[in-house]
Amino acid sequence: MSYETVIGLEIHAELSTKTKIFCNCSTEFGAKPNEHTCPICMGLPGTLPVLNEEVVHLAVKAGEALNCKINKLNKMDRKNYFYPDLPKAYQISQFDLPICGEGYVEIHTKDGMRKVRLNRIHIEEDAGKLVHMEYEPYSLIDYNRVGVPLIEIVSEPDMRSPEEAVEFMKTLRAILQYANISDCRMDQGSMRCDANISLREFGKEEYNTKVEIKNINSFKELQKALEKEEKRQKELYDFGEGFRIKQETRRWDAGKGKTVTMRTKEDANDYRYFPEPDIIPIVIKDELIKSVNEEMPELPVDRTKRFKEQYELTDKEIEILVEDKALSDYFEKVVALGAESKTTSNWMLGDMLRLMRETETDSKSIPVSPENMKELFDMIKGKVISNTAAKEVFEEMFKTSKEPKVIVEEKGLSQISDSSALEGMVKEVLQNNEKSVADYKAGKVQAIGYLVGQVMKASKGKANPPMVKEILEKELSKL
């Protein structure tokens, strides 16, 4: 039987504020455990929350960037549940009156551009972090993340494959980064998602039972988790055991490569929502919406359009660059220094991305400065170094952040362009490769390629290839 996959995502993004949502504790990542805590975010008796105005500002900005309806009257609610990393035993969130209503995001699919509808965006506080000790019978808790402000972006079930879900999340990340709403550092947990997935027969209108997969924090793992859960549900339906798919929360076990049951899925009434009594309703004024739109920076869709008009790049090259704000910012810095856009793109999407993947380097931490990148291009164009040597220089630049001229000097990689020196190498190669010379004279013109390679080998890659070929042709014509 043929099934259609139905996917919706709930994406949590930490907002780029300096302090937490209800207190003055820092939101800085990487502090010692429990260093950024106070009686308010720890929920001690007698404390009162005070809403951070910047949280409201950034949430409205997210709504505008994601084509949402801004609810001018909204409120905070208490969501009651007990987890050890939530010291109050309730979370301050939003329920029936979220800050943003319906919106949409346009994504690339195999069938072209398509809209994925958004159900809502609401603000809430984050919980802490459990640290499970591998060889100890207990877990530790770091409360630094408690009270860090979040927006939760809830999509409608409009995605029809794991690939579309990943594309949606990538598109959303780019928008949030471009608008300076969140840094979306998935490696630091500042962006993560819960995925809801179900299957139904093609042509059917009603949805079947969905399963939620919790806390996925990378595009790669999102795709794997959805593919495995898709396969699990299909097998159950194929064996006539669809009734065994129950509404539940599962987690992705990356080590075992499968989803694992956590708990039966709660409904809204299980959380016993009620209005937060310590925070008055939030009123959004027209002036705030106007100022948010006036300060909105260039978003991915606008940058894509500008790149197509301004640079001689393919659609795929533009897509990869624009998807990552830091990467496209770096590209423009190099080009602004006078580098050719195509050359810059080729190096960035080739050697640079390869080294970034191998070393797990974030695009915000590229160790090669734009100035050094431009200098490397100048050295290639000026024939100071060969393309082969340039790759070696670039790898060293990436490892050490040294200037290219320093590396060239240290490694002795300057290209040999002295004609007399090259003539001596060419004559020696011709004397030692009589068969290739005979092949060339017999009409096998490809033999010259082998001879060029032998000269390059003799010069340890330093010879100027075009000059080598020119001198070879000249010497061979004499024979």
TrEMBL record:
This is Aspartyl/glutamyl-tRNA(Asn/Gln) amidotransferase subunit B. It holds the Pfam family GatB_Yqey. Belongs to the GatB/GatE family. GatB subfamily. It comes from the Bacteria. It is an enzyme of class 6 (ligase). It catalyses: L-aspartyl-tRNA(Asn) + L-glutamine + ATP + H2O = L-asparaginyl-tRNA(Asn) + L-glutamate + ADP + phosphate + 2 H(+); L-glutamyl-tRNA(Gln) + L-glutamine + ATP + H2O = L-glutaminyl-tRNA(Gln) + L-glutamate + ADP + phosphate + H(+). PROSITE patterns: GATB. Keywords: ATP-binding, Ligase, Nucleotide-binding, Protein biosynthesis. Its EC number is 6.3.5.-. PANTHER family: GLUTAMYL-TRNA GLN AMIDOTRANSFERASE SUBUNIT B MITOCHONDRIAL AND PROKARYOTIC PET112-RELATED (PTHR11659), GLUTAMYL-TRNA(GLN) AMIDOTRANSFERASE SUBUNIT B, MITOCHONDRIAL (PTHR11659:SF0). Residues 329-476 form the Asn/Gln amidotransferase domain. Allows the formation of correctly charged Asn-tRNA(Asn) or Gln-tRNA(Gln) through the transamidation of misacylated Asp-tRNA(Asn) or Glu-tRNA(Gln) in organisms which lack either or both of asparaginyl-tRNA or glutaminyl-tRNA synthetases. The reaction takes place in the presence of glutamine and ATP through an activated phospho-Asp-tRNA(Asn) or phospho-Glu-tRNA(Gln). The keyword Oxidoreductase does not apply. Heterotrimer of A, B and C subunits.
